[in-house]
Amino acid sequence: MEPLPGFNDLGQDTKRQLHKHPAIRTLLVAISAGVIFLSGWGIGSGRIVLNRDQLLNKSVQENGQDNLDYTSVEQVYDVLRRQYDGELDVDELMDGLKAGLAGATGDPYTEYLSQEEAKEFDNQLSGTFTGIGAELGKNASDNIVVISPISGFPAEKAGLKAQDVIVEVDGEDALSWTVSEAVSKIRGEKGTTVKLKVVRNKSQEVDIEITRDTITLPSVESKVLDGNVGYIKISRFGEDTVQLARKAALDLKTKNVKGIVLDLRNDPGGLLDASVGVSSLWLDPGKTVLEEKRDDKVIKTFRASGTPVLKGVKTIVLINEGSASASEIVAGALKDNGVATLMGVKSYGKGSVQQLERLGDGSMLKVTIARWFTPSGINIDKEGIEPDQKVERTEEDFKNQRDPQLDAARAAI
Q: In order of start, what are the domains of the chain with their CATH numbers?
């Protein structure tokens, strides 16, 4: 995400807040960029790209020694037991150690999730939870940032925007928090409210009050626009996304639409295999969807398969700064294979792949195992994908419920 360099145009109080905590160095579980706190949808990285079938290979394991020396850790624990003025929870200490071990990699997407967080993570893949409906992450300045409010839910309705930096939650300074801490503070019971103070456009402080609700997020929606334009919106890439997207494609084909608008705006991503399956609706079997590389060597190539229901159908793909991870895979695959035109603004930019490792006590380790590249060999990490045709949607458009991006796509079909 864009850093907020200097914050030169902010008020002095905000400047002091934003520079007070330059980095997170605590042994707390830190959910990485892309935690959706609906509240909180823990797929990450924009939602993260997950490939559950891949295992960590030998080359990764060879990066470190066989065992760690925990002597100094035991010394720290002994001091805490003797001198700490308070109660020690051994389970929390162990979670903190494991979180710190993962966090010490320096990779925002490699993280340890406690048993409770792992359960929440699994629930999030099902698409139903309680919260406000937005995705959180970290920007280059280590601030909590809104990657995208999820369309149609409380955060968006209350006016929360992508790129908003969260500086306060219910009056508490949020700038030293991990994303996990922000999620836990923002989440709450249905019908209750949370007050956020955000910095928008690096200069404007905005107070937003949001009423929490139960969030049920269908991964695919479809309809016919203008009588002959098919519209498919994918809000996440989950277990059911390929099936729902294929069903939508077949339905629209029977209605003889002259083209398709594929809306991936504010889609934070999800399962890698789902992105391959969706891309296959347009691509001939065998066409490259993406490559995974480790140490600059290709370790796996993902190719289209099945019947390309929408092959040859004119397609416009809408992307924006909230399109991340799996949605960027689809956009990149369709663009590079020449079967779609991208419209909107530059996407988020997440080009890594995470592997889930479930631990014996019910906790989970999420590990970055590779980088993914578009069919043209481009890794979009921190760069994003530029649209073929740039179309912006301004604050004024949002306020007046105008959608020039969708209007431009409809007009181009």
A: 12-214 (2.30.42.10), 217-353+370-412 (3.90.226.10)
